[in-house]
Q: What sequence folds into this?
């Protein structure tokens, strides 16, 4: 009895030491790691608090603790929490109470909502309310990245909003450094504040590399001095699309292990209709190459890269965005990047003069009751946990075959069933051999195809062209083999999610054609898949014979 108690306490201790992140975070080459050196993957969602009322959105709809719990239940471990510079540099703004702030904007309905849902903050100052939200996230074990989104409270960003770059009407570099220092100081000792993103989307007519190097390092040093615990996150030029200049000249800092770069990537980043004007497979090749050249390359140079914003209209009605999303998810999975979805916000108190504007990019629905589109959250969920990184080598390195359109990976429910898409946590571990075979790790079974329109299967004769798979086409996301008659064929997904092979589609030219059912990525992983380990170690029936259910 006594020893039972002791061992269960020990178990409890071991368990909690596995799941709890120990702060502060730092960097180890391209990875963000915790105090024990184990990778922490930032899977954040943006929560706006930089708009005219200068209060975290949604607090008129739901209690902040409820919202924090929904963030957790949607699988996010972190919030990129936006703030306007003037919240901390303009005392008369910071000291307005929440009620006063909404009164001056005539948002009386919101006041009633906040009184009902978050009565404890209605008569506290805006800066105190901001701190209270951070605490509430902390109580729910949600990490926070403080993002200086803009100077003057309001919707961001345009080239001509005078908040874009050093020297703009609302962007005085000295005031900015003062504000960052105050913010870093205010949150020194608040352990769930793990990072500060120093300025969102530098942009506009004044932007230039020289001034970027002039001010960013000074600000980084000031933040680090005021709060050595936070990761210091630096954004690139042109709305955070361009960090190519780092290749020529690294940022020189007196401290190490805290620097992270940030980039943003939307479907409209390369033009509003890029994905409609050309063949999406060619666009993905072109745009992903641009992303690697301007920011993705940084991970190979030993820096963490945080995609601080990405997202789509979650109703699915924007085709341009839908096409981009599959391409984006492929890159984000392959590089196993840290990221923040735009946005949590289901609706704004007010935006662009519209009271209660519905946010179609929002993870929450209009009333902040639940997920706007749970299938979208499901789709990104496989990227919410790390595929690899320090301290996570649970099993031998292998590949998972990731399908961005669904966010699922190739596996199967049982040995008797055909290969199909399933949660990436249940993925088969694949080895990709120099002979281009895709072999289930620990077995002799390789992926092969016999005919167009039929299920692919696992076989043991792996030397023919029908079991040699290459990543082809501009996107490099078509996984292609050749039938015995020499015809190329591509991996595809049937409507019941079983894996089939079909004629390769939408490779080039046709802009009406959507290739994404045939888009896959081979993603490096050391994630264990307990269910598959179990199914592969099941004793095989018919000792000495080739087990039919493994082949078929
Ligand atoms: C400071 O904030 C107050 C209240 O919002 C505003 O009236 C004033 O113009 C602001 N001052 C500056 C310099 O931005
Ligand atoms: C969720 O997203 C999917 C895929 O884009 C779309 O087909 C569906 O209609 C969306 N659901 C809602 C409720 O918006």
A:
């Amino acid at each position: 009895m006594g020893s039972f108690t002791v061992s269960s306490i020990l178990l409890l201790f071991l368990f909690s030491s596995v799941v709890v992140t120990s702060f502060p975070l730092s960097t180890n080459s391209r990875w963000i790691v915790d105090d024990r050196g184990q990778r922490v993957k930032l899977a954040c969602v943006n929560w706006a608090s930089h708009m005219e009322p200068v209060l975290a959105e949604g607090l008129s709809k739901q209690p902040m603790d409820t919202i924090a719990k929904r963030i957790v239940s949607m699988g996010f471990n972190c919030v990129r929490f936006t703030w306007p510079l003037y919240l901390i540099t303009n005392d008369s703004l910071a000291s307005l109470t929440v009620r006063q702030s909404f009164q001056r904007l005539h948002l009386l309905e919101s006041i009633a909502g906040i009184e009902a849902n978050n009565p404890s903050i209605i008569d506290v100052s805006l800066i105190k309310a901001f701190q209270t939200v951070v605490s509430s996230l902390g109580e729910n074990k949600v990490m926070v990245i403080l993002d200086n989104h803009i100077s003057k409270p309001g919707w961001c960003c345009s080239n001509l909003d005078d908040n874009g770059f050093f020297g703009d009407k609302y962007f005085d570099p000295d005031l900015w450094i003062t504000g960052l220092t105050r913010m870093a100081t205010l949150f020194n000792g608040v352990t769930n504040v793990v990072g500060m993103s120093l300025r969102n989307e530098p942009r506009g007519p004044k932007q230039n590399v020289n001034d970027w190097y002039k001010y960013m390092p000074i600000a980084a040093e000031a933040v680090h001095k005021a709060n050595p615990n936070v990761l210091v996150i630096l954004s690139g030029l042109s709305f955070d699309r361009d960090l190519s200049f780092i290749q020529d000249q690294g940022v020189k800092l007196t401290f190490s292990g805290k620097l992270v770069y940030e980039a943003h990537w939307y479907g409209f980043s390369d033009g509003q209709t890029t994905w409609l004007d050309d063949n999406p497979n060619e666009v993905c090749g072109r745009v992903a190459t641009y992303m690697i050249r301007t920011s993705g390359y940084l991970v190979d140079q030993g820096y963490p890269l945080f995609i601080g914003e990405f997202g789509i209209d979650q109703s699915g009605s924007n085709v341009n965005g839908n096409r981009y999303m599959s391409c984006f998810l492929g890159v984000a999975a392959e590089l196993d990047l840290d990221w923040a979805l735009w946005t949590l916000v289901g609706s704004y108190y007010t935006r662009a003069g519209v009271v209660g504007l519905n946010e179609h990019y929002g993870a929450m629905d209009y009333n902040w009751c639940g997920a706007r589109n749970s299938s979208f959250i499901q789709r990104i969920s496989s990227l919410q946990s790390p595929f690899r990184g320090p301290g996570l080598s649970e099993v031998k390195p292998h590949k998972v075959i990731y399908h961005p359109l669904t966010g699922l990976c190739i596996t199967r429910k049982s040995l008797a069933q055909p290969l199909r898409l399933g949660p990436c946590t249940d993925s088969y571990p694949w080895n990709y051999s120099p002979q281009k075979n895709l072999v289930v790790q620990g077995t002799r079974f390789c992926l092969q195809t016999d005919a167009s329109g039929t299920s692919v299967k696992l076989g043991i004769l792996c030397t023919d062209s029908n079991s040699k798979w290459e990543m082809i086409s501009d996107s490099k996301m078509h996984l292609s083999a050749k039938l015995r008659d020499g015809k190329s064929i591509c991996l595809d997904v049937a409507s019941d999610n079983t894996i089939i092979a079909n004629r390769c589609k939408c490779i080039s030219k046709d802009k009406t054609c959507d290739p994404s059912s045939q888009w896959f990525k081979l993603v490096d992983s050391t994630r264990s898949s307990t269910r598959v380990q179990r199914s592969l170690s099941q004793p095989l029936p018919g000792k000495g014979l080739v087990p039919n259910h493994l082949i078929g």
User: Anything to note?
Assistant: The first strand starts at residue 26 and ends at 28. Residues 1-18, 538-552 have pLDDT under 50 and may be disordered. Residues 314-316, 373, 375-376 surround 2-acetamido-2-deoxy-beta-D-glucopyranose (ligand 2) (CB under 6 Å). The domain at 398-551 is CATH 2.80.10.50 (Trefoil (Acidic Fibroblast Growth Factor, subunit A)).
